[in-house]
Structure formats: structure tokens, C-alpha cells
Design brief:
The complex is a heterodimer of chains A (about 250) and B (about 210).
Chain A (H helix, E strand, L loop, with lengths): L2 E7 L8 E7 L8 H14 L22 E2 L2 E2 L21 E5 L8 E3 L2 E2 L2 H8 L11 H6 L4 H11 L6 H5 L6 H12 L8 H14 L10 H5 L7 H16 L2
Parallel strand pairs in A: 1-5
Antiparallel strand pairs in A: 1-2, 3-4, 3-5, 6-7
Chain B lengths: L1 H18 L9 H12 L1 H30 L16 H4 L1 H30 L5 H8 L3 H28 L5 H30 L5
Helix pairs in contact in B: 1-3, 1-7, 1-8, 5-7, 7-8
Classes of the chains: A alpha+beta (about 250), B mainly alpha (about 210).
Chain lengths: ~250, ~210
């Protein structure tokens, strides 16, 4: 299969970037999107050109490292899949594909398609953990947890922190990510003792990083590779509002 | 945004309810009775000030949101396909709100302004029923009001449900109720408002 690619090339965070045209041929339809980029990079290296920098790691859809805004969609057109799980058969032979990095002030471009997503790390560091003593392994089994809560917490914990929510949101809001991280702990007894201060600190850090605000458009939920639900954002708003009222 | 939005939604109910009295077809007797109460009661005047404050907060909050959200993405996508993952009206609340504000200024200039001015100058209220009859005899005014109702429909279609989500009032058990109520409200209230100038124009109200 043959494709016309328009790839964002940017030397470093200081320089101005632009879309560069490439044509790629003889692509197997069962290749993943990243493998297609590998082939393109191989061609570029052979010609003595600078290969395209892009993030990737496990290539199994679980690490959250790959990104890419592909033809107007975060992680491409396939529903509930990361870029590494996207296959070239999803694209029309001979078609044009736009490849851009995540766009947000809080995710500055480092090079080409690679963005700095450490803002998410700083949000987690602000409170996305349990620091009270929750006992030994057997204590976890002794804690009564309602099945429905455990399921909801697990669904929220499926978030891989890739940043597709920010990329898809017209406001560059990070609330789906932050709400998933707040929810997974708020729903379990181990997260209970610190839930108020956690909600306040994580939301404050999110705002300090310069992410936009949620206006309930729902693009994040539609594009999330792990299908994190908008109900988490409502839970976060509830946690934050209540915590703001009662926290001293 | 959600809190002030719900407050303004409450106002819409009151406004639509009182104006619907025109359909008693008693020469505006019932309508004028309530209009007189709303125009002269001390407590209502107090609430009216609260209404303007709520509206102002809603506008200022909206502008702040718009600015922060715009600043959060300094470099735009060269190619984007927003229709694939969201509805146009959920992304256009600022534009819809601005259209409604322009309409609101015209609407206040048409009715509320001249009436209050007359009250201050002469201490007398104007006959708002006759004002309506006069205003809505112009087809362009009727079309303008209908267009505003259409914008209000889209604004409410997203806004009603969105307000509950923003306030964290979201529960799997009630989500469907909020969704249906929001859609029904967004259709019914603007429809009632749109019927008013239409029925005045076609002399169905007398």
C-alpha cells in the first residue's frame, strides 16, 4: 500500500516546526502504524536524512508511551486503541495521512512528534498515591470492598496516562486523566484517609501546569484508548468541591 | 458556570410561565396582572438584581474559560476532525452564548429598558402587553426572536446536562433522567418562547 504522509518536523523545543511531505510505498496492510514509521525512518536514514522522532515503548497498548495525532484524531481513527495497536489497513490506499504531536501548552514539543508529558508526572507527585500505612498483603484481603466499587476503581486504574484526552480535548483539558487517578483511589478504602487533600492538591497542580478546563464536550472519552468514562470527571468535581468546603 | 447556568435556567422557567399568561386571551389582563407584580414588587426587584449578578457571573466565567482554554493550546492542529468525537454545539457554547447576549441586549432594549425608564421618569408602568403587540407586528422582529430561541435550544441542549456534570451531580442511576429532562427542557422552553412572537404576529392573541 502507498501513502502520502504530512509529518510535523521540529528540530527542538525552541525552533519553529512545519509539516513535511513524505511518500511511502510497499506498506503491508497488517503493519502497525509505528512499524510504518519505522520503515519510513529506515528510508530516511539510508538517504542520510534525520529520522523522525516519535515516542513508543511496549507496542502492546499498555505502557502509554506512544501518542500521535493522526489525521485529526488522537491515536488515529480506531476506537479504544493506542497508536501501536493501529494497523495500516485502517487507512485508504493512496490516501493522505497527517501526523502531528499532541498539542497543548503543557505538553511542549521536544523534537518532531515527541512531547514532554512530565506535567502528568508532577500531577501524580502532587497526590496520586497512598502514603498512609495500609498494612501487609493479607490486610488487603481482610478489607471489605464492594464489588461494584472495586470494578469502578479498576476501570479508572486502566488509564495509561498517554495524554490522548488532552490531545483530543478542544480545551486541552487534562481532567479525564486526573479524574481517573483521583477516582481509582477515592473508590477504595486505602485511598480514603487522604482523599480530600489528594483532590485539592492534584487539581491545583493540574491548573498550575496550564491545562484547559473541562466544558463537558466528551471528546476525551471518545478518544481514550482505555475507555475511561466521563463519570470520573463528575466524581473528581464532587471530591474537589466537597474537599474545598471542609478542608482546613 | 454550572451553578450560574442552573440559576439562569430557573429564571427561564419563571419568564416562560408568566409570559404564557398571554394565551388566556383576555386582552392581556392576566398577563398584565403578573407583569405588574414583577415590575413593582420590592422582593422581585431584589431578585432581579441577583439575576443580573448571576448573568454577569455567567458571562465573566465564560470569558475566563474561553481565554484559559484558548491559551492552553498555543499551536493549533494543522488538521483536526472534531466531528468524529464530539457534537458541534458542545464545542460552540461560547458562540451560542454570545449570540444570546446580543439578542438579550436587543430584548432588554425592547421591553425591560423602556418600561423601567418610564417607571423612573413618571412612576407609571407601560402597558407591556400593548408593547408586545406593537413589537411583534414586525415580521423581522419575529424572525429575530425565533432565531434567538433556536440558539437557546442548542445552548440548553448542552448546558443543562453539562451543569450537573460540572457540579459532580452525576450518578449512573440518575444520568438518564438528567439527560432526558435536559433534552425535553431544551426543546420545550425555547419552543414556548418562540410561540409568543409568532402567535402575536398572527393575531392569535388578543
Amino acid at each position: 500500500m502507498k501513502y502520502n504522509l504530512k509529518v510535523w518536523r521540529q528540530k527542538n523545543s525552541k525552533s519553529e516546526g512545519k509539516l513535511v511531505d513524505y511518500t511511502i510505498d510497499s506498506i503491508n496492510p497488517d503493519m502497525s502504524f509505528l512499524e510504518m514509521l519505522d520503515v519510513l525512518n529506515d528510508n530516511l536514514v539510508r538517504k542520510g536524512e534525520d529520522p523522525i522522532a516519535f515516542d513508543h515503548d511496549c507496542r502492546e497498548g499498555i505502557c502509554g508511551m506512544c501518542s500521535l495525532h493522526i489525521s485529526g484524531r488522537a491515536h488515529g481513527p480506531q476506537h479504544a486503541a493506542t497508536t501501536c495497536q493501529l494497523y495500516m489497513r485502517s487507512f485508504k490506499d493512496g490516501g493522505t495521512i497527517y501526523i502531528e504531536p499532541w498539542r497543548a501548552k503543557s505538553f511542549p514539543v521536544i523534537k518532531d512528534l515527541v512531547t514532554d508529558r512530565s506535567a502528568f508526572d508532577r500531577i501524580i507527585a502532587a497526590g496520586g498515591f497512598v502514603s498512609v500505612n495500609t498494612g501487609q498483603a493479607q490486610d488487603a484481603n481482610n478489607l471489605p470492598i464492594e464489588q461494584a466499587h472495586a470494578e469502578k476503581a479498576m476501570d479508572a486504574a486502566a488509564c495509561i496516562g498517554c495524554g490522548a484526552c488532552v490531545a483530543a480535548c478542544p480545551n486541552s483539558a487534562a481532567m479525564l486523566f486526573v479524574s481517573a487517578k483521583i477516582s481509582q483511589l477515592a473508590l477504595l478504602p486505602q485511598g480514603g484517609p487522604e482523599r480530600n487533600i489528594r483532590a485539592i492538591n492534584m487539581v491545583n497542580q493540574m491548573d498550575a501546569e496550564g491545562f484547559g478546563n473541562c466544558t463537558n464536550i466528551g471528546a476525551c472519552e471518545a478518544e481514550c484508548p482505555k475507555e475511561i468514562k466521563l463519570t470520573n470527571i463528575a466524581r473528581m468535581n464532587r471530591e474537589y468541591l466537597l474537599a474545598s468546603l471542609i478542608n482546613e | 458556570m454550572g451553578l450560574t447556568g442552573l440559576f439562569l435556567i430557573c429564571f427561564l422557567v419563571v419568564h416562560a410561565g408568566i409570559n404564557a399568561c398571554m394565551w388566556f386571551n383576555d386582552g392581556g389582563k392576566t398577563f398584565t396582572f403578573y407583569a405588574h407584580f414583577m415590575g413593582t414588587n420590592f422582593i422581585v426587584h431584589f431578585i432581579e438584581a441577583g439575576l443580573f449578578a448571576g448573568l454577569l457571573l455567567h458571562i465573566v466565567d465564560g470569558l475566563l474559560l474561553w481565554k484559559q482554554n484558548r491559551d492552553a493550546r498555543p499551536v493549533k492542529y494543522a488538521y483536526s476532525n472534531p466531528g468524529a468525537n464530539s457534537t458541534w454545539y458542545s464545542r460552540s457554547m461560547g458562540i451560542l452564548g454570545s449570540l444570546l447576549l446580543i439578542f438579550l441586549i436587543i430584548h432588554l432594549k425592547d421591553f425591560w429598558g423602556p418600561n423601567r425608564l418610564n417607571q423612573i421618569m413618571t412612576g407609571e408602568e407601560r402597558n407591556t402587553f400593548e408593547m408586545m403587540q406593537e413589537e411583534f407586528s414586525n415580521i423581522f422582529v419575529v424572525i429575530l426572536y425565533c432565531c434567538a430561541c433556536f440558539a437557546l435550544f442548542w445552548h440548553l441542549l448542552h448546558g443543562f446536562q453539562s451543569a450537573f456534570q460540572s457540579l459532580g451531580l452525576n450518578n449512573v442511576k440518575y444520568n438518564k433522567v438528567i439527560e432526558v429532562a435536559g433534552t425535553v427542557f431544551a426543546i420545550v422552553v425555547p419552543f414556548i418562547f418562540a410561540l409568543m412572537p409568532i402567535s402575536m404576529y398572527f393575531k392569535l392573541v388578543h
